[in-house]
């Protein structure tokens, strides 16, 4: 069987992961500190992405970073960089991976990759193992409960399909699509719409002043004239009795909204006398 390129990633001497030709390694294989790569090298100085292996001329070429340490063996014997350069295997930081080469590249402190060509591992079963696989590598026969559940599921599925077909053929209403443009639809909306305008006509209140009756008499007790209207007025701005009653009672009268109600103060004079039995009355007060 043909050998394939195999890479082995180690961290502090412990194995982490494999990368094989034809699976992870195709035309190229990229590593780096990026978390979305298969091989993430957690070293501060390591770049985000680095093409570690790429195909060139039918052979794979290993691209090393500056400062990487390389150790190579050929047919089980260690070779140095001069030998690799003389045989055109090492040019700068690029190493041509021949099938008889294997070695180790130190990427960063605690991180190294081993490379070599090896035959892919294939599991070969013995006769006993093949018999065991043939015995148990098939599905078990369903029991009565499993068969009943399957039958119910198939029945529900068939009924659902029949219902969909009947609904689409008989029960589904026919939708009539109106072929009209946007402009026609706008015209239809405008024709059906009703414009509402607010009535902005000013409305004024009418106030009626009542002329109070002339009062020429004097009060019997005071001898002074009680005048209606505002103090010092002639009664032209006086309110009607109903308006004043409504104002003092806490009500509202449309005829009394022009001027605030005026209060009238009336001064009266009263007399009194003191009399002793058998004597004359006298005295007075205001």
Describe this structure in words.
By secondary structure, the protein is an alpha+beta fold. Among the domains are: 4-118, Tumour Suppressor Smad4 (Sandwich); 222-270, no CATH class. It is built from 5 helices and 11 strands; from the N terminus they run E-E-E-E-E-E-E-H-E-E-E-E-H-H-H-H. The protein has helices at residues 81-86, 127-136, 144-171, 182-192, 241-248; strands at 4-11, 14-20, 28-31, 50-56, 59-63, 69-74, 77-79, 90-91, 94-97, 101-108, 111-118. It has a 6-stranded antiparallel sheet with strand order 2-1-11-10-6-7. The chain has a 5-stranded antiparallel sheet with strand order 3-4-5-9-8. It starts with a strand and ends in a 38-residue tail after the last helix.
Give a quick precis of the structure.
The protein is of the alpha+beta class and 286 residues long. 22% of the residues lie in helices and 22% in strands.
